[in-house]
Structure formats: C-alpha cells, structure tokens
Automatic annotation (TrEMBL):
Belongs to the UPF0324 family. This is YeiH family putative sulfate export transporter. It comes from the Bacteria. It holds the Pfam family Cons_hypoth698.
C-alpha cells in the first residue's frame, strides 16, 4: 500500500517548517543573550530569560504576522518540549555538597519560605484577587522558588497558556529587581539586624532569581554572597518535590471533577509525574558525584541557559498582550503582597531559624 504523495509532501513541509521555526527561535535567543550581556542590562541583574520573554512578546505582538505560519510548530516545540529538557539540565547547577554547607538552618529556611509562599500566593490569588487557578499558582511559584525558571517548570506541568506565564514572569522581574537595590539599602540603614549567616539566609531565602540574589548579597560581602547563593540553590532543589506534589494534586482534582461530572467518585486518570523533575534530580546527583569534568559542566550549563532562553523567547512569541492585560493588575497586586510577605515573613523566619539553631 503506497502513501499518498500529497500527504508525504504535506508532512515534509510541516517537518521543514518546524525545523525553520526552531532555528528562528535559536537565532532570536542568540541575539537576546548578546543583548542581556550589555553592561546596562547585566548590571541590573536581568537574566537572558527575562530579556527573551520581553523580546519575544514584543515580536509576537507586532511582527509575528510576517512569520510563515508553518514555523509555529517549531516555536511551540521550543516553548514546550525543549523547555522540559532545559529545566531537567538546570539540576547541574546544584550539588548536595553545597546544600550540606548551610545544613539544617538553610534547609529549614528554604522549606518554610517555599511552603508558606506557595500556600499564601495560591490562596491569595484565587480567593482574594479572583485570579484563575493557573495564574495564581504560577505567580506563587515564581515568588516562592526560583523566579522565571520555576514559572517555566510549573507552566509545563499545568499546561497553562503562555500569557499566564508572562504575567507571573513580569511580577518576578519587577519585585526581584527591586530587591537588588532595596535589600542592601535596608541592611546599610540598620533595618536588618542579622549577622553574616542571617543575611545569607534572608537574601537567599527570599529573593526571586539566582542572579538577583548574587547581585544583592555582593553588596554585603563575599561570605554572605556564598551563603545566600547556596540557600537559593536549596530553594531551587525544592522544585522537584513541589512539582511531584503538584502532579498528585492535579490528578486528584481531575479525578474529583470527573467523578462529579459522572456521578462517580473514582476516576481512572493516573498521576502525572513530570519526568523533567526526575531528570532535574538525576542531574543534581550527577553534579554531586562529580562524574563530569568542571569544563564539561560549564559547557552544558551554558547550553542549558541558551535552551532556557529559547524556551522563554518562544513563550514570549506565543503571548498575547491583550490576555496579559486582563489579569495584569490583579496578578501584580498579588505579587506585591507576596513581596511584602517575603520581606516581613522572611525576616521573622530567619530570626526564628537562627534562634532555634543557635
């Protein structure tokens, strides 16, 4: 039985278009990385991921009509499948040895901040601000765990729309950048009565992005920066259990909804375990065992940053500003309240942790 020439030709066009779309996103991401390296932008602690989603959104809402329609498959691949692979390899930036350096105080700080911020952010977003479930969870995840990278990981698990991720990333950018300037000022003004360990715990436990943590803590000292970075990476490590729990919760919600719709209480839907979270954990273990030479790890991390930038750029291209505008003010208000919580609640948690482990 022979295949239809028309179908074969159509498949070839689709495949070729997807490849062109991926290549287009890759070239866009390369330009974004060069732009993010400019002193004026790098000095603000703005990562290529952030520049990517902004640049992608500007293109997607102005010039996208000029992009061939069959390239959309490649853009979608970059925003979905490539994203999952990149999040998994993000684990090579974390090692169990580093996490052990801050011990129980660092782990306790991270767990308390992540859990409280996720719970507060989700409840606040859905109940008080009347945001939809996905937008509320994405906002909470960006503030609680590791900024834009967490938003990307949660977006992949929730399978939410790109504009919801864009709203959450916007909140992360605004308040994370503010932290870089506000936290050192608060420390110098004497509003933060903490020793070097305490400063490291507070900065690493409450600032959104890794680059923002380094930028803020470097204004205090080298030791505080070292501690803050490790605490921050401990929060990143918590991405795995949180995503697994999210998968369980989503499966139960779907089963409950299906049961309610059909009048039954049992459904057949399986728990969706995000494989990239397990991949992330595997990469952490590889990094902890020092299987790869340092140069190889650096090279993979550079490629991973490029892949994450591609994913964020593609997400920006698929974002519709009109949709962002609908949830924008309420999502931003949620992000602000969470930011106030991270400062006030974070200080209280840091004092408590230091007191308990003194």
């Amino acid at each position: 039985m022979s295949h239809s020439p028309t179908l074969s030709h159509s498949s070839s066009i689709t495949s070729h278009g997807q490849l062109n779309g991926i290549l287009f996103v890759a070239l866009f991401a390369a330009a974004v990385i060069r732009l993010a390296a400019l002193p004026a932008i790098a000095g603000l602690g703005v990562s290529p991921l952030i520049v990517g989603i902004v640049g992608g959104a500007l293109y997607g809402n102005t010039l996208r009509a000029g992009m061939p329609a069959h390239w959309a498959a490649g853009v979608n691949f970059s925003a979905r499948k490539l994203l999952r692979i990149a999040v998994a390899f993000f684990g090579l930036r974390v090692s169990l040895q580093e996490i052990a350096q801050v011990g129980l105080p660092g782990l306790t700080e991270s767990v308390l901040i992540v859990v409280s911020t996720l719970v507060l952010g989700t409840w606040l977003g859905m109940k008080l601000m009347k945001l939809d479930r996905d937008t509320a969870i994405l906002n909470a995840a960006g503030s609680a765990i590791c900024g834009a990278a967490a938003v990307l990981a949660f977006e992949s698990t929730l399978q939410s729309k790109p504009e919801k991720s864009a709203v959450a990333v916007g909140s992360v950018v605004l308040f994370g950048t503010l932290s870089m300037f506000l936290y050192p000022l608060m420390y110098r003004a004497g509003w933060i009565h903490l020793d070097t360990l305490g400063v490291g715990l507070f900065f690493g436990g409450t600032i959104h992005e890794v680059a923002q943590v380094v930028g803020a803590a470097s204004n205090v000292g080298a030791e505080a920066t070292h501690i803050a970075t490790i605490v921050k990476m401990t929060r990143v490590m918590l991405l795995v259990p949180v995503l697994l729990l999210l998968g369980v919760w989503l499966a139960r919600s779907a089963r409950r909804d299906a049961g309610g719709a059909s009048g039954q209480t049992h459904g057949s839907r399986k728990i969706a375990v995000p494989w990239f979270a397990l991949g992330f954990l595997a990469c952490v273990l590889v990094n902890s065992l020092h299987v790869l030479p340092a140069l190889a790890t650096q090279a993979v991390n550079a490629l991973d940053t490029f892949a994450l930038t591609m994913a964020m750029t593609a997400l920006g291209i698929e974002t519709h500003i009109s949709q962002v505008r609908k949830a924008g003010p309420r999502a931003l208000a949620t992000g602000f309240i969470l930011y106030v919580w991270l400062i006030a609640g974070g200080l209280a948690i840091t004092w408590g942790v230091q007191h308990v482990f003194a």
